């Protein structure tokens, strides 16, 4: 599956809705046992949640948007398919979450590409299920330091801390992702799927049990004037950086 929403594959409500529909179709297709996620936009895997969806909108919009973010994560994290992220560009915040949610991550070894949960840099806080997913990949200590600092890690650093499983030259990313997929698909589906469920169930159950509370937390947090101001300033900073 190739993300193609220029300029930066930001995760808008439309993007998330289409992503979930595509995943559901693949999940229901018995002939499909695995999916490789990558980007058709040069140098960017995904720039994370679309900040404009979280700025100056109604409470109803925030609720709908956040449910779509939850739905994307629940579907991908619990997928019966083998999921491989072929990270061919930068991948901050929500983009990093997508990669973390897959079974295996391969990143192009370009030191200019960065990945991480940088929410703290925007003055916002990654919710518990982002944190849980991160901890499950890199361990508690690395996740705590990286989350508190809102670190964006260069590709080599992301590999060193275990955020990505391997680095390959960009031109070899597709072939390597295909080889990894073949390796994972060589196992009997039922054994792999049950093992995946066993490893991920507690974290998935936690969001399912607190889903509505999590939506309300998001709305009350994002609606604060101080948070809205931080997000507006961040967007301005992105625009200024260009000129
Ligand atoms: C309680 C809340 C919990 C929330 C949990 C998760 C939060 C998130 O995911 S928030 C999103 C965090 N994302 C980022 O911090 C990344 C921001 N973007 C960048 O750093 C750069 O844009 C990037 C490195 C991805 C690409 O750099 P460039 O190739 O140089 O592109 P530009 O910076 O010029 O961007 C082009 C264009 O896109 C707009 N943009 C970028 N990112 C986003 C985004 N996440 N949402 C909305 N819009 C985004 C950027 O402003 C530019 O717009 P124009 O100036 O109008 O062209």
TrEMBL record:
Its main location: mitochondrion. Pathway: Lipid metabolism; fatty acid beta-oxidation. One of its GO terms (molecular function) is delta(3)-delta(2)-enoyl-CoA isomerase activity. GO terms for cellular component: mitochondrial matrix. GO terms for biological process: fatty acid beta-oxidation. Keywords: Acetylation, Fatty acid metabolism, Isomerase, Lipid metabolism, Mitochondrion, Transit peptide. Transmembrane segments: none annotated. It is found in: Mitochondrion matrix. Pfam families: ECH_1. PROSITE patterns: ENOYL_COA_HYDRATASE (PS00166). It catalyses: (3Z)-dodecenoyl-CoA = (2E)-dodecenoyl-CoA; (3Z)-hexenoyl-CoA = (2E)-hexenoyl-CoA; (3Z)-octenoyl-CoA = (2E)-octenoyl-CoA; (2E)-tetradecenoyl-CoA = (3Z)-tetradecenoyl-CoA. Homotrimer. This is Enoyl-CoA delta isomerase 1, mitochondrial. It comes from Anser brachyrhynchus.
């Amino acid at each position: 599956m190739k993300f193609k929403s220029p300029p930066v594959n930001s995760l808008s409500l439309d993007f998330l809705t289409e992503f979930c529909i595509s995943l559901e179709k693949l999940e229901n297709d018995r002939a499909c046992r695995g999916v490789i996620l990558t980007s058709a936009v040069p140098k960017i895997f995904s720039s994370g949640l679309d900040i404009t969806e979280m700025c100056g909108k109604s409470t109803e919009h925030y609720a709908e948007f956040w449910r779509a973010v939850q739905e994307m994560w629940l579907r991908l994290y619990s997928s019966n398919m083998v999921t491989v992220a072929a990270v061919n560009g930068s991948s901050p915040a929500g983009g990093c979450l997508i990669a973390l949610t897959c079974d295996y991550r391969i990143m192009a070894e370009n030191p200019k590409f960065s990945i991480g949960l940088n929410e703290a840099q925007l003055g916002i806080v990654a919710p518990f299920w982002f944190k849980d997913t991160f901890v499950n990949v890199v361990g508690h200590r690395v996740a705590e330091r990286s989350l508190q600092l809102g670190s964006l890690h260069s590709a080599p650093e992301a590999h060193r801390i275990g955020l990505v499983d391997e680095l390959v030259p960009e031109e070899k990313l597709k072939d390597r992702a295909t080889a990894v997929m073949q390796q994972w698909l060589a196992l009997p589906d039922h054994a792999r799927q049950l093992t995946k469920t066993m490893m991920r169930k507690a974290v998935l159950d936690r969001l399912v049990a607190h889903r509505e509370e999590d939506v309300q937390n998001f709305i009350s947090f994002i609606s604060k004037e101080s948070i809205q101001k931080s997000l507006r300033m961040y967007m301005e900073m992105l625009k200024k950086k260009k000129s």
